[in-house]
Design brief:
Chain A is α/β, with parallel strands linked by helices. Chain A has nine helices and ten strands. In chain A, strand 8, helix 8 and strand 9 form a beta-alpha-beta unit. In chain A, helix 1 packs antiparallel against helix 4 and helix 2 packs across helix 3. At the A-B interface, helix 1, helix 2, helix 5, strand 10 and helix 9 of A face helix 1, helix 2, helix 5, strand 10 and helix 9 of B.
Chain lengths: 207, 207
């Protein structure tokens, strides 16, 4: 695909939210929806939704709405969410443990199959059905299992070093809870889960 | 300000990340930086950073770089991060407790001063220096203290009802960990902290 054909990343970022809302509708027994209805729930415009979806072809006819189960299937296929992804977690403190026990992540296609910590009191203990391993085994375990996604839930100061190890192990995408900006090679993606940054995005408007 | 003068929200979303990285530089004893250096850490382009900052006036001269302490002060002022914001938290399960104990949130200007749960075994207990209160007191407490920001850390099914209560209490910004798309009035902001959605944004590129 040439760069000109690429779907903008900001559009890709919205597709999981469309999928999430459509799945909610589906769980409520709703079978058909419209871009207008979706927009109302998502706090966006019907135009935006239609434009975003048009990058991937047409999913509904003007005036007849979207068949939810079809659209859910297509969006899952687009996001590669039609399979289960194995995920490694580093940092099994209170936040890491909460994530290990989070059923929602699993329900949406992600299995945390390996977890690591360097605290000896945590190593060997169980959380979310996984045994916490010594952080020294990160490279071996991730390489062996060919895991491509990692959740980084260690405190700030240690984060960059762990990120380097994850990248060396073959990780291609990091969900970063460390609150630290990570330096990674261009081919590795980072998504920041930073509550302070997201709160500041709102206080801008509240001053 | 007329809508034409408004800084795009996508730009606002990047300012906290610039502030975060600049504060890291500052903590490392660095006094001057450049858009190029910032861009390398942030995985973006120097052009983008210069363009984003130009919305708020000039912060550095071509060729001389940015004085970090000055720029940090200005960005804090822009984001209203030059004061401490009180925050209410609803849902003191494992994730909520981890957030209550998160020093990073506090260090960056947010004080969780009230926490609520509906589980009787949690009500009255302490976490992060706050006593968990009965969820029935949300409206009274938030109204009385005039709190404008809330963290929603309850499981999906209960989230919309709690969000309605928060909005009725005067909350203007919600950091949403529920994994549910919330319906809120136009004047209320929601920032989604949804690990599955952020993982899917990366699996799109990994298929």
């Amino acid at each position: 695909m040439s760069p000109a054909d690429r779907v903008p990343d900001v559009v890709i970022g919205r597709i999981p939210l469309y999928l999430r809302t459509l799945s909610q509708f589906q769980a409520q027994g709703i079978r058909i929806t419209s871009s207008k209805e979706l927009a109302a729930v998502l706090g966006t415009s019907a135009d935006q939704i239609r434009k975003d979806l048009s990058h991937f072809g047409g999913f509904g006819k003007q005036g007849t709405g979207y068949h939810i189960s079809y659209l859910v299937g297509q969006l899952k296929r687009i996001l590669h969410a039609d399979r289960e992804w194995e995920v490694a977690l580093v940092g099994a403190g209170s936040l890491g443990s909460a994530l290990l026990n989070c059923k929602e992540i699993n329900r949406r296609g992600f299995a945390i199959v390996a977890a690591f910590d360097r605290d000896p009191t945590r190593i060997g203990s169980q959380a979310g059905g996984v045994t916490i391993q010594d952080g020294r085994h990160i490279e071996d375990e991730i390489g062996l299992r060919n895991i491509k996604l990692a959740i980084l839930a260690v405190p700030g100061p240690a984060a960059q070093q762990v990120a380097d190890t994850l990248v060396a192990s073959g990780i291609r995408g990091i969900l970063n809870y460390s609150g630290l900006a990570l330096r990674v090679p261009e081919e590795v993606m980072v998504q920041d889960m930073d509550p302070a940054a997201h709160l500041q995005r709102m206080t801008y408007y509240l001053g």
